[in-house]
Specification:
The chain is an alpha/beta fold. It has helices at residues 7-10, 40-45, 48-52, 63-73, 85-97, 111-118, 161-169, 224-237, 244-254, 257-280, 302-311, 335-353; strands spanning 27-28, 80-83, 102-105, 123-126, 145-149, 176-179, 200-205, 218-221, 284-285, 292-296, 314-315, 327-331. It has 2 domains: 7-37 and 258-353, Aspartate Aminotransferase, domain 1, CATH 3.90.1150; 40-256, 3-Layer(aba) Sandwich (Aspartate Aminotransferase, domain 2), CATH 3.40.640.10. It has 12 helices and 12 strands. The strands form 3 sheets. Strands 2-8-7-6-5-3-4 form a 7-stranded mixed beta sheet, with helices on both faces. Helix 4 packs parallel to helix 9. It is globular, with a radius of gyration of 20 Å. It starts with 6 loop residues before the first helix and ends with a helix. It binds 4'-deoxy-4'-aminopyridoxal-5'-phosphate (PMP). 4'-deoxy-4'-aminopyridoxal-5'-phosphate is lined by residues 85-87, 109, 149, 153, 179, 181, 205, 207, 213, 218.
Length: 354
């Protein structure tokens, strides 16, 4: 850090993204990307005319994209705000609603803790119960910003919308932010609850189920008043936060419901097959409603398994914290990628037994 960096920023730990190695080709199962390309409609939408239009700024309001989202999710356009990935919207949320502090689980998306530090929001860490279960009773009456990934990452476990509704009801003086980055892989969304509570905000991303991680697109949904809060922050930080290409691609992706269903179903099917194979090899695999599996084996630690797989060209994610260090998080890729993963695991475990 240079001597010019303010103490407020030089002293805190930033988020460590999953490796994006450029040195060699890995079977990349470490950042929950989709193994499938975006809808062919996205390619068609990004035509030569759109390339020429790159000289123009994008619509800062994402009007057409919000109209399409409103249609698909049965919301009003003023109940929606688009972001440069959902990470950006999470950051806006901590800024907008964090003045009383923010509560989130000890095992969850690592960015929450970083954003609390960055925006000087007091973090109230709520330990998950045994088996990484989030107990809604631990979140009642906290009356501050509450951030819950549903399904949770890296565990993959999901709550029911009625549990999140209860948390919203019992925290009238705090916003309840439900981060639904992985909801399309078999969990139930809280989007139908939007508008019923003045303090419930749902955030989703196009990065996983719509194969658009590179385009950086997410959206927040909530009462218009909450969206105006976020918009104020957006317009202070980056008014043109969603690029023209991304807005066009996002709309095209929403227009291809069949492709979306096909891909999410394929990933769920591959997930179940992979979970069964890992279980048969002696792994304990948490029941996942996401595009990843969180698993451990009594015969090998998480770090050792991560390293051994990396040597074989398969990249998974390991989190070194006390409660997660025995596990690896494995993104569900294509059937071929999972076959390679299982071959690798089989060879590693065979080597240990020998
Ligand atoms: N929330 C959770 C729980 C995530 O795992 C991720 C992906 N790292 C995000 C949000 C952010 O996704 P993006 O910024 O790509 O929309």
């Amino acid at each position: 850090m240079s001597r010019f960096m303010g103490a407020r920023y030089s002293l805190f730990d930033a988020y460590t993204p999953g490796e994006q190695p450029q040195d060699r080709q890995y079977i990349k199962l470490n950042t929950n990307e989709s193994p499938y390309p975006p809808s062919p409609k996205v390619r068609q939408a990004l035509d030569a005319g759109e390339i020429e239009d790159q000289r123009l700024y994008p619509d800062p309001e994402c009007t057409a994209l919000r109209a399409k989202l409103a249609q698909v999710y049965d919301l009003q356009p003023d109940q929606l705000l688009c972001g440069n990935g959902s990470d950006e919207l999470l950051s806006f949320a901590f800024m907008a609603w964090g003045s009383r502090g923010a509560a989130f689980a000890d095992v969850s998306y690592g960015l929450y803790r970083v954003l609390a530090d960055l925006h000087q929001v007091k973090a109230h860490i709520v330990p998950l119960r045994e088996g990484f279960v989030l107990d809604d009773r631990d979140y009642l009456g906290l009356n501050r910003l509450i951030v819950i990934a549903n399904p949770n990452a890296p565990t993959g476990l999901a709550l029911k919308p009625r549990q999140l509704a209860l948390i919203a009801e019992q925290n009238p003086d705090g916003v309840v932010l439900v981060d639904e980055a992985y909801v399309d892989f078999g969990a139930e969304s809280c989007l139908p609850l939007v508008g019923r509570y003045d303090n419930l905000c749902v955030v989703q991303t196009f990065s996983k189920s719509r194969s658009l991680a590179g385009a950086r697109l997410g959206f927040a949904a909530g009462p218009a008043e909450l969206m105006r809060d976020l918009k104020k922050i957006k317009n202070a930080i980056n008014p043109y936060n969603v690029s023209r290409l991304t807005q066009r691609g996002g709309i095209a992706s929403l227009e291809d419901a069949d492709y979306f269903l096909l891909n999410t179903r394929a990933i769920m099917q591959t997930r179940e097959n992979t979970a069964r194979s890992l279980t048969a090899m002696g792994f304990e695999v948490l029941p996942s409603r996401t595009n990843f599996l969180f698993a451990r084996h009594p015969g090998i630690g998480g770090a050792a398994l991560y390293m051994a797989l990396k040597k074989r060209g398969v990249l998974v994610r390991h989190f070194g914290a006390e409660r997660t260090k025995d596990y690896v998080r494995i993104t569900v890729g294509s059937q071929e990628q999972m076959a390679a993963l299982l071959d690798g695991v089989r060879a590693i475990m065979g080597g240990i037994r020998a």
